[in-house]
Amino acid sequence: MDILRLILTKTTRFKVLERAFLLSSLLFFCTFELAANQQFSQCVSDLKFQARQQGISESTVNQVLGKAKHLSRVIELDRRQPEFTQTFAGYFNARITDERVRNGRNQLNKNIQLLEKIYQETGIPPKYLVSFWGLETNYGGYFGSWSVPDSLTTLACDQRRSAYFTQELLNALRIIDAGDITAERMVGSWAGAMGHMQFMPSTFLSYAKDADGDGRRDLWGSIEDAMTSAANFLLRMGWNPDFEWGQEVKLPSDFDYSLAGHHHKRSLRSWVALGITPTSGPGLLPSDQQASLLVPAGHQGPAFLVTQNFHVIMRWNRSEFYALSVGHLADRIAGEPALSQQPPPDDIKITREQVRQLQKDLHTLGIDAGDADGVMGPQTRTAISLYQQKTQRIADGHLDSTLLTAIRTAASSLSH
């Protein structure tokens, strides 16, 4: 009986402690939530003041910011970075599919009158506008489902990139204030990109056009407005109607890959003299037109000569992989064949932490790979190429598992 009483007493004490713990946890959570809500409310109040100071109407300020919601999921997405870095093969093959090419050709034919009209006015060929459209929203199939005002308010009230997103929020309010779109219809990506072509509010204000004459720059409901706005952006960024974006080329067997990279520009005359030939179509004209050579998957993958229009595409999105995908998808939509040299299968899945270590290792070896930010960008690939040159390898700037191990081993030997 004493043993039973002891067990019951201990069980009762455990339950009391458990309940106390749960109560204290709940109290902490509620206190944290209350503080967070108060902080968000104060931030929204400050944003209202800024908006009024910049001439945004009281009705828009109250209508939008008066109903602003904090979206915790947006903060999660802003903080999240993919564990593995993207390879060209993975990026390209996921985006350039037979279905996307077929749908692009259908959209090109369906909207050909509009696209030809824009071409006559701007010099931007139809195939490029359709290609951007396909890569940004799958030809208008998905704009994103986030409330842009709520997303931007949430990000503006977060310290990480507050200044940038505060400005984008104020620009979004200006768009609503001008009557181009209602706050309810202003939906897009979690980061605030909007409409058929996924313009950020600042881009919208600078380049969006009311092409259909209804008094609104409607990049959600008007394909005419969206395509004309995209063409205006490309034109203002310096698109040259005399050039294509570039083309796939074949390299001679003894090619010096240290000449690759979008910062190494030469005339087509110079590239022709080095024995570079196109994989399809007429031969390269030996002219003074400047071009760069890219080998995004290394010497075993495809090679591309790219013109200044390629760099204009990169003003839309700073990724070389993106710009190559836009250019090639445009060509496929226009009836050109698929790549003659497909990207080889990836032999390595490298994490961002491994890229950071690689950048540190290259620095240890006396090669500048830029900041150890975990991003496999042009500067890091150039640094890899320099290491390859120093160690008598093919200097294509491409990383595989063998090279990654070699760089780590070399750096470790110097550190000890």
UniProtKB/TrEMBL annotation:
Peptidoglycan binding-like domain segment(s): 352-407
Pfam families to which the protein is assigned, alphabetical: PG_binding_1, SLT_2
Keyword set, alphabetical order: Signal
Signal peptide start-end: 1-35
Annotated InterPro entries: Lysozyme-like_dom_sf, MltB-like, MltB_2, Peptidoglycan-bd-like, PGBD-like_sf, PGBDSf, SLT_2
Domain Transglycosylase SLT: 39-331
Domain of life assignment: Bacteria
GO process terms (BP): peptidoglycan catabolic process
PANTHER family hit by this protein: LYTIC MUREIN TRANSGLYCOSYLASE, MEMBRANE-BOUND LYTIC MUREIN TRANSGLYCOSYLASE B
Protein name: Membrane-bound lytic murein transglycosylase B
Organism listed in the record: Nitrosomonas aestuarii
